[in-house]
Amino acid sequence: MAPAIAPMKLSNLPENSFVKALAESSTLNSVPSQFSFANDSRGSHSDSIPIVDFSLLASDNPDQRAKVLGTLTMPLVNHGIPDSLLKAIIDASLEYFELPEADKRRYEAKSASDPIKSGSGSVINAANHRVHLWRDFVKSYVHPQFHCPDKPQKLRKVLAEFSEKTRSVLRKLLQDIGENLGLEKGYIDDTLKLDSCFQLYAANYYPPCPQPDQAIGIPAHTDHGLLTFLIHNGVAGLQIQHDGKWFNTNSPQNSILVNTADHLEIFSNGRYKSVRHRAVVNSEATRISVVMANGAAPDAIVRPAEPLVEQDGRPFYQPMKFIEYVETMLSNRLEGKSNLDCIKIQQDD
What we know:
By secondary structure, this protein is α+β, with helices and mostly antiparallel strands. It has one domain (66-107, 116-343): Sandwich (Jelly Rolls). Helices cover 27% and strands 22% of the residues. The chain contains ten helices and 17 strands. The strands form four sheets. It has an eight-stranded mixed beta sheet with strand order 2-3-13-10-15-8-7-4. Strand 5 (122-124) and strand 6 form a beta hairpin. The radius of gyration is 20 Å and the shape is globular. The N and C termini lie far apart (55 Å).
């Protein structure tokens, strides 16, 4: 049996230290103790996640549309966003991570409400110890107000176009979701003020890890917002949880993975469930993902849709201003699903 590799100890590791530089160190042969997050990163290969053709949502057959929208963890193809744009946003995001650390440190987060943030991040584990994540990130609010790092220069144009294209996909999906829920046409648009919908761009850089089962890219969590769109550079790493088991999501090239997020669960009064997921790491290749989190207008009050409350007899979630929910969740540093649990209305049967 090979001897166990003792974890490295890095002294005075900054809170927002960048993992890329650490992973490229020639002396790195084990996970530093500050990153120790034991996990079973293996997931079942899932053939149960259907690939959805976006054009089917234009079908005249309501049963076909309802089947497509029955669950919303799906790789979406024929979505209308050019392959060249998907490649461009991945490439521009990679260029950001390759910038000198001084350029990236300009955007170290001072508060949850900062419109641009960059760093690595950490979580509090079950033992109440702070654990650093095996990833670097950059996040920016891109709608209704557009914010973008100054470098690389190409990112601004590409990100603005990506934001516009994904908003079009979002509104089409939500229109059909509203119909599937039995809501009047335009109800979701008007109630959630989608002309001013909130969008958060997040790019993640997961470098190779010497001990993938001893570190985590992002631990299990759900997303704020209505629907989350994700693309990646072809390296797998996203897993979703279903019935207590973890499943790999192997989406086709140039598809967009769509996940249901917290506010769609709230708005639908629990009919759609927010998808619990995590990002695991590997020892072979760098993974890059680009996420667009899509939500209601920042000042919109998100609550269960009134027609659905009337059907159910009561709301199952408390109302909350959208931006307050986002900032509360971001300040909690991805501690599971606690934010959604906090606004669930607990009542005896």
